[in-house]
Amino acid sequence: MPPWWGKSSSKEDKKKSSKESFIDAINRKLKITSDEKSTSRSGGSRRSRSGAVSQRGSLSRVPSRSPSPSTQVSRCQSFVERPHAQPLPLPGGNHNVLRSNSGINASIRPGFDRGSKPSPLPKPGQFSKKLDRVDGEGDFATASISSDSSIDSDDPSDSRLLSPLTSDYENGQRTAANSPSGTKHMDQLSDVNQESKEILKPSNISFNNQYLSTSPKRGSMNNHVQNLQIPQRGALSSAPDSSMSSPSRSPLRAFGLEQVWNSGPGTGKPFSDIVFLGSGQCSSPGSGHNSVGGDMSGQLLWPQSRCSPECSPLPSPRMTSPGPSSRIHSGAVTPLHPRAAGAAAESPTSRPDDGKQQSHRLPLPPITISNTCPFSPGYSAATSPSLPRSPGRAENPTSPCSRWKKGRLLGRGTFGHVYLGFNSESGEMCAMKEVTLFSDDAKSKESAQQLGQEIMLLSQLRHPNIVQYYGYETVDDKLYIYLEYVSGGSIYKLLQEYGPFGESAIRNYTQQILSGLAYLHAKNTVHRDIKGANILVDPNGRVKLADFGMAKHITGSSCPLSFKGSPYWMAPEVIKNSNGCNLAVDIWSLGCTVLEMATTKPPWSQYEGVAAMFKIGNSKELPAIPDTLSEEGKDFVRQCLQRNPLHRPTAAWLLEHPFIKNAAPLERPVFSADASDPSPAVANAMRTLGIGNARNFPCIDSEGTASLPCRALKTVSGSSDIHTPRNMSCPVSPIGSPLPHPRSPQNFSGRMSPSPISSPHALSGSSTPLTGGSGAIPFHHQKQPMAYLHEGLGIIPRSQTNFYGNANNPYQEPKPDMFRGISQASNVSQEMISSDTGAFGKQYGWPGHGDHRDFYNGQPALADHVSQQLLRDHVKLKPSLDLNPGSSMLGRNGGI
Ligand SMILES: Nc1ncnc2c1ncn2[C@@H]1O[C@H](COP(=O)(O)OP(=O)(O)OP(=O)(O)O)[C@@H](O)[C@H]1O
């Protein structure tokens, strides 16, 4: 028995106990009600109409089985994703195995792996030796662990750029070109270390220059893996550090200072992150793993030591999540449940007599039924009370969400891993974000609250340019968050694959990003991690904001200091810790993202991480802007990159910028001739929900300012006055559009073949330097009295206009003629805007001056008007639904 098993009993007990509290905390956070439970249970008849439904009632309440194998094995799950992992044998041949390289055409292929042979099980001793050897090599890291296991290919700091151990799991090819970099970086680390201490003095950058010392030895690792790897207070974004939670992370991939310092273009490690800890907890770079999470008191971390099993072909028994396989393309993410998957062949901790645990339906029915299955009538973001786990549930295919099977790995993030989910009954797909919960950490309660807050926030969002949240559930020690599946990958990935976008694509994508941001900001919520890696694109060219791990609802009462984001996209005020929690930080990041789309790199990428942050935070310089962008594009970027956040236009304003207004529409409309019909999956879900005529399902326009029936889209899709009807996807379709694919992103840019990543140095030679925030902007200086649209909240007299009105922001000199045409906006939008503005303005004295919108207290600001309208429309059809924003209705809608 491996040595760690000796401790597992007590630790497992402890963990189990703590997990309960963790899950309870989430459930409390999401306001579980017995009504929800009742509702979902009573939905059996309705569920029966949908293949996607679950049958909660089948759950038994048999006490939990012995915990040791399941959790141990599940932690080793990642090993099956390793490059050389063999397909697991599927006992009984009765498997529903998802194997798909495409991820889109996943199909159930019973017995697919029947001929596969498991890899020989490594002996524990071998494993220990391997670790020890690795440890010995890993002492270069003097302090702890940073970062996550994220080798998400979407991430600019993708491990492919860092290590030969990594590879493009999309292409299934190892990327060896950068192989020397890792060693080089390690060698440089000590020098860099000293340099960083200088650079990171508080006088320069406002965060604590503390290093979390931990031993690179496994002793420390033990502590890590026992903990819920989610940063504490305020670190929504900083998910559990996967390097800790998932030792599978390669040290060469570790994101810490070593990457920041070596992330310049010459290093092949662009856009790496510095990892800050919130009060000692790990936070890790965002999916880009260039994200910085944690509060300003965060601590700078050193990269992960070489404890990573990636140094070893053997899986760590302490893996908390699937390891960052460099051949994830292989689709080798086993559909087996973690308890079965890792144990069967890959894990040294597996037990040969565990066959009865090897269910092939993933995820297994939850131990704690947090909510019902997405798309099921009983589904709700709210949850039902925990239920004891039935040992027989693995064999019970009728439990909630049991029809959702975990497919290939889509990407990795700070919180965990994202898999394709497929419902073999309905054919629906979704993205399953898997987060491993370890809750014996003393601060797990707080972490649970954060995670619950993120889920709560997501559940409130519904917009065609925001990845739709469907719901969540817990299975064993894992939390699954179900999201709309966006199959096209991220902008970052497209840039890496196809090179810079053409201006037409940039305009179009930017418009959609802005639409999502306008909606988000209207809810007084800041994303805080806008960048190419966090923006997904579907095959129709529709853009979806994703990764709300750092999102924050800004309440009027407090705005804690935050140091969140991805350094190269991070606004100066965030780095300088001066009012870094404001909506305008997203606008800055958007400007960086526009440059990223134009050049494949964010601004200041010619500087290594900390130097770039220093530049951003302290220099008056603004980045070069490529001449490939039009004057309108350059101006748009200048608007976004104004150092003073108060001078940055709002998202709603920017939607009227010529760069956006003149954006060419998609070649093909999102909606076909029969555009009034939602996708079959949605229609099916609606029927299941008993909502009524799917053809009248209301949609949200891109600004979150309107709620229109889908059928209206056909009419307004050609209108330039409403920003994004053509980009609407209404409503969320877990399957995707049945429409033929319009031009692909590469066709936007006209670049069919990958182009080399342009050097920022080269760019500087052919670019127009930006000179401060108020450069030569033609319309910027044209002043005339006018009304302003503030975050979609209404026409606001000039004298009251402020881009980001709040108590801390003095009014800004308006941007007069910038959006001259706004008052001539369509009647539809005008009506929607003005009708809401009055009430809101009266009630809150908008804008600013201390009063803040509080969408979460039931006050109907315009953005919420959309949700309210949605709900009202639903209620007309289903009067029994609860309109209370805090009720399960929102979650239920979100589950469509
Ligand atoms: N809805 C989705 N559809 C398709 N792929 C997705 C989806 N959500 C996430 N992914 C993939 O998974 C990756 C990681 O997801 P995401 O960034 O949301 O995780 P995270 O843990 O929140 O990351 P971060 O470290 O940035 O906080 C993405 O880069 C993307 O490749």
From TrEMBL:
Alphabetic keyword roster: ATP-binding, Kinase, Nucleotide-binding, Transferase
Annotated Gene3D superfamilies: Transferase(Phosphotransferase) domain 1
Claim: Isomerase is one of the keywords in the record: no
Polar residues bias spans: 169-182, 203-230, 318-328, 744-758
One term of GO molecular function: MAP kinase kinase kinase activity
Top-rank taxon: Eukaryota
PROSITE patterns on file: PROTEIN_KINASE_ATP (PS00107), PROTEIN_KINASE_DOM (PS50011)
Protein name according to UniProt: mitogen-activated protein kinase kinase kinase
Natural source organism: Gossypium armourianum
